[in-house]
Amino acid sequence: MRLLASGLHNTNSAPVFRGGVEIVLTSGWKTYWRYPGDAGIPPRFDWSGSENVASVEVFYPAPKRIIDGSGQTSIGYEERVIFPLHIHPKDASKPVVLHLKFDFATCAKLCIPAEATLSLSVKVGEDDEPALAEAIQRVPALQDRAKPRSLAVLAAKVERGADPAGKDSRIIVTALARTVGKLDLFAEGPDEEWTFALPTLLSNDAGHVTFAIPLEGSRLGKAEIPPRIRLTLVAGDEAIEAQLPLD
Q1: What structural domains does the chain harbor?
Q2: Residue 217 and which of 35, 143, 163, 165 are 20 to 30 A apart at CA?
Q3: Which residues are bridge partners to 80 per DSSP?
Q4: Do residues 60 and 77 make contact, with C-beta atoms less than 8 angstroms apart?
Q5: Residue from 85, 74, 138 nearest 109 by CA
Q6: Which class for 187: exposed (0-12), middle (13-18), buried (19 or more C-beta within 10 A)?
Q7: DSSP code, position 18
Q8: In what order do the strands lie in the sheet with 238-245?
Q9: Rounded-to-integer distance, Cα 5 and Cα 7, Å
Q10: How does pLDDT run along the chain (247 residues), one tens digit per residue?
Q11: Cβ–Cβ under 8 Å, residues 161 and 154
């Protein structure tokens, strides 16, 4: 694994350095998304030792489902992943020095927690790192309702079942996916107290898609249901992220 970085870039808010954390995996091994699924450990990024750094935003490329030999399904990456970074300097006229303490896990048949310590100095006029442009393209776009898209999450609502204990209750998600490629959906709550069971594709009628997320097998937070749900919809090489209220 290694740190990658490019020079200063202007954004809508303030100048940032672009960077990335790259992991290259041995064949048959995997590492995890921010929500790891049935089993696994999400990555943790500690930038507290960095110099001239106000904050670091970490972006997650669209993940995939990975089924292991026990039938459990993890959410993550195989072969290679780059987590893009936006590095906000305290003083944009000076270089930054990144110090990362990175806790993560790699798994084949057994899961191995790991820790890495990495450092990198980044100059204001640093050349662009070509791998970062590709990695940024793999990050799900934030859904903008004002812009028409061929990929969109339309609504999410709780559907109560007949079981008085609520074992057959579920969240129904409707979406639009007029793109080519394998469809998948990943669901997260407002914080880590919430973990949802993996969604199931119910129907795909000419790109009008319905998924179900069973509440049985989900770990719910202090409320019966969260006020909002964070959804990542993947269709082939395209992906979109939306936060919706639960009806």
Answers
A1: 2-139 (2.60.40), 142-245 (2.60.40)
A2: 143
A3: 24
A4: no
A5: 74
A6: buried
A7: E
A8: 141-142, 238-245, 228-235, 183-188
A9: 7
A10: 999 999 888 776 788 999 999 999 999 999 999 999 887 889 999 999 999 999 999 999 999 999 876 778 899 999 999 999 999 999 999 999 999 999 999 988 788 899 999 999 999 888 888 899 899 999 999 999 788 788 999 999 989 877 776 678 899 999 999 877 789 999 998 777 788 889 999 999 988 999 999 887 677 666 667 788 999 999 998 999 999 988 7
A11: no
Query: Within 10 A of 241 (CB to CB), how many other CB atoms are there?
Result: 19
Residues 100, 21: contact at Cβ < 8 Å? yes
- 173 Cβ partners below 8 Å, 6+ apart? 153, 155, 156, 185, 187, 199, 210, 211, 212, 213, 231
Residue with tokens 């989900």: 218
Residue 1, token pair as written in the block: 């694994």
Specify whether the CB–CB gap between 19 and 87 falls below 8 A.
yes
| Residue 158 exposed, middle or buried by CB count within 10 Å (0-12, 13-18, 19+) | middle
